[in-house]
Amino acid sequence: MKERRWEPGGPLDVGLALQPHRRGGGDPTWRRSGDRAVWRTSRTPDGPCTLRVSVEDGSVHGRAWGPGAEWALETLPALLGAHDDVSGFSVRHEVLAEAVRRNPGLRIGRTGRVMEALVPAVLEQKVVGQEAWRAWRWLLTRYGEPAPGPAPEGMRVVPETAVWRQIQSWHWHRAGAEAVRARTIANAAWHAAKLEAAATTEELDRLLRALPGIGVWTSAEVRQRVLGDPDAVSVGDFHLAKLVGYALTGEKTDDRGMLRLLEPYEGHRHRAAVLVWLTGLRPPARGPRMPVRDYRAF
């Protein structure tokens, strides 16, 4: 085990900073223990690791196990938003000002690991979360490896990049992912080295969107997590535009309307969208929900 203490130098909500990396309640890479510590696995450039993050006496305490432990602790501040720059962000709506007051520890962190964010983002394309998270759990249970150290039971580390290229078509089917998403992930894995080396959000966006099956929404979802891009708004999201419209105007809107509403927050549009989510405001449900499909039965 390796350890590190870090002083965040201001309010920090560890759970809120790490929540974007959790893919559903049963995500094998993410757990929250009874003592409020967050456990997370990752495949670092040095190998797999398990990271436990807690707040003790006002400082962040990180413990890590596995070959990637040292890398995980070295990048712990970045993961928790140490580089998150809020300069230029000015709240223009009272409802968001209230969300800022209630969540002073909100920070947008960065993992620096593209494939860990890209695979689940592709699985979430055009399906409900429950369907995508089921596929993510199945694939990690089948192809991931046990988490190093005393991790909570059932935790897994995402497989090596080469594994994503070798998964047989019938196993994608058993996971519940159809051929289009499977091909998108496998093809991206062939370009993983170039993607992981991207130094800026503009470069990563260009490289991602040059790949078949990856568009604006998937690129934004990846850049939010990998590089902590505060402006990478998820255009094309099934729910986001409606939430933004309802929270800021009392009426649902579409992507074009959402971008108009978020225009005053240019440079921080993703941050504003996160604050919208934290308001808890949701438009009244009308009509049936999008069904949970199961490609395993096709």
From TrEMBL:
Source taxon at top rank: Bacteria
Sequence segments annotated as region (Disordered): 1-32
Keyword terms of this UniProt record: DNA damage, DNA repair
Transmembrane segments: none
GO cellular component, one term: cytoplasm
One GO-annotated biological process of the protein: DNA alkylation repair
Gene3D superfamilies xref list: Hypothetical protein, domain 2
GO molecular function, one term: alkylated DNA binding
Record protein name field: DNA-3-methyladenine glycosylase 2 family protein
Organism: Nonomuraea diastatica
